[in-house]
Each structure stands twice: as C-alpha cells, then as structure tokens.
From TrEMBL:
This is Acyltransferase. The lineage of its organism: Bacteria, Pseudomonadati, Bacteroidota, Sphingobacteriia, Sphingobacteriales. CDD domains: CPA. Keywords: Acyltransferase, Hydrolase, Transferase. GO terms for biological process: putrescine biosynthetic process from arginine. One of its GO terms (molecular function) is N-carbamoylputrescine amidase activity. It comes from the Bacteria. Residues 4-259 form the CN hydrolase domain. The keyword Hydrolase applies.
Length: 291
C-alpha cells in the first residue's frame, strides 16, 4: 500500500512579492510539520492576481525559471525533505512570458517545469495579454514520493489535458489555480460556478482513476471587485472529497492519499481499459461540421 501526504496551501496575497514568498515558505514549513511530503502552492502565489488588467508594468513581476524564487524554495525543499509545486510568472526571453509551474524534489533538486497550455481571456482574467501558451506539452515529474502531473487553472476545464497527463503515468493530478467570484454576482450564480469548477475536476479523478488536488487562492482583490473563492480540495481516484477548504480563510491542510487505490478503481471501473482509441481521431478537429 503506497500512501503519500499532500499539503495544500490556500492563502491570500499582497502587492509585495517578497512578502508573499516568505509567507508561502512559512506555510510550507507548517505543512511539513503536519507531515506533508508534497506541498502544492496556488497559482501565481508571489503576487496579487494581476491579470485583471492589461498593464505593461505587470511584466516586471516575471522572473526566470530556474531563478530567484526557485532558488529560495530549493533550499526549503532540501531542508524539510518535501517536494514543492510552485506556480510562477516566467520570463523566458525579452518579450516572451509564460504561466509556469516549477517542481522541486525533496532533495532540493529542480526537476523541471510545466507551462500552462490553455490561456483564458475573460473579463478580469486577461491572461492572453501576458502569457504565451505552453510549448512543453503535458508533463509528469518523478519525485521522491510519487510521479505527479501538473496542470494549471484554465487547464482544469479540459478532460483532454487530464487524460493525457494521466496516460503519461501520473499518480496524482495537481492544479494550482486562481479563480473567484465577481462581488456583484448573486449567491446562486456563485454556487453554480463553484460547483461546476469542482465537478469538472472530480470528473477527471473518476475518468482516470487518480487523485486530484486543486489549490486555489483566497481573499478580496481587484479593489474589492473579486473574491477569490478558495474552496481548495483533494479527492481520491473515485472523486470522493477527502478535504474541502473554506471560501474565505487561509488554510494549510495535509491529506493522506492512498495511491494503491488507483489500481483497485481501474480494475472495478475500467474506463482506461475500455477506451475506444481507434474512434477518437475526430477529437483533434476544432468542430465536427465537415469543414
């Protein structure tokens, strides 16, 4: 029986990049003290969610990966013996930027990065202004404790992304994310949106027979116009909720995942075995209408 303790860090952020990094490190230490072996931070945790506006000055928040933040986190990973999943704003070259997650192993080594593939362009989520779509493809990382797959926020809505990552051998799917409610919305709309967000991710766990861990930020941003809804959660490979975070509090939670359950779930609900891969060629079309 293979079990792993996963730490979820749900926190609010400020305008001060160093303050946010220091806070995240403190929470990683808290998670490790609770027994965490893999710690996942939320999307773009070193800053406020700046994509609410198209502002060239925000590009100054970006950094190289590996770079200053990964250097600091590598020291912490080695000291504590934990894997760290760190979502950062990557400056790849002059004028070329990505929304990227770095993975640091428990010995402090840098294992690599995943660049967000699906980039939104919604009101208050103007990510196409800042981020080039990922060009590394989908990725898994063999860490000390598990082979993990990383996807980022908007990737959450796409079963194709979770399927491919699971087929690459991921034991767990992690989703660092930043999503919230416009504060002028009614409560029914808020709940419908949150339920859709959680449901699609739980479906990835069921369809692939692997645990899903989703870590979201919390707190009011955008001058009070946006309430990031927290609600971080972890499921097993059957979509059962093992932990559910609050909508308005910072939380550092550690959840035990039994990775041996995936074999059981896939035997009894053999969705991977029964896939008709010979019939899936049309999935690569934008729309199936003859054009």
């Amino acid at each position: 029986m293979k079990k792993v303790n996963v730490g979820l860090v749900q926190m609010s952020c400020t305008k001060d990049k160093q303050e946010n990094l220091d806070k995240a490190i403190a929470k990683i230490r808290e998670a490790a003290a609770k027994g965490a072996q893999i710690v996942c931070l939320q999307e773009l945790f070193t800053s406020l969610y700046f994509c609410d506006v198209e502002d060239y000055d925000n590009f100054d928040l970006a950094e190289a990966i590996p770079g200053p933040s990964t250097d600091a986190l590598q020291v912490v990973a080695k000291e504590l013996g934990v894997v760290i999943i760190a979502s950062l704003f990557e400056k790849r070259a002059e004028g070329l930027y990505h929304n990227t997650t770095a993975v640091l192993d428990a010995d402090g080594s840098y294992l690599g990065k995943y660049r967000k593939m699906h980039i939104p362009d919604d009101p208050a989520f103007y990510e196409k202004f800042y981020f080039t779509p990922g060009d590394l493809g989908y990725k898994v990382f063999q860490t000390k404790f598990a082979k993990i797959g990383i996807l980022i926020c908007w990737d959450q809505w796409y079963p194709e992304a979770s399927r491919i990552t699971a087929l690459m051998g991921a034991d767990i799917l992690f989703y660092p994310t930043a999503i919230g409610w416009a504060t002028d919305q009614d409560e029914e709309t808020n709940q419908d949106q949150y339920n859709a967000w959680q449901t699609i991710q739980r479906s990835h766990a069921v369809a692939n027979g692997v645990p899903v861990v989703s870590v979201n930020r919390v707190g009011f941003e955008q001058d009070g116009a946006m309430k990031f809804w927290g609600g971080s959660f972890a499921t097993n490979g059957q979509g059962k909720i093992l932990y559910l975070g609050s909508h308005d509090q910072e939380e550092t939670e550690v959840v035990e995942l039994d990775l041996s359950e995936s074999d059981f779930f896939r035997k009894h609900w053999p969705f991977l075995r029964d896939r008709r891969i010979d019939s899936y060629q049309p999935i690569t079309k934008r729309y199936i209408d003859g054009d």
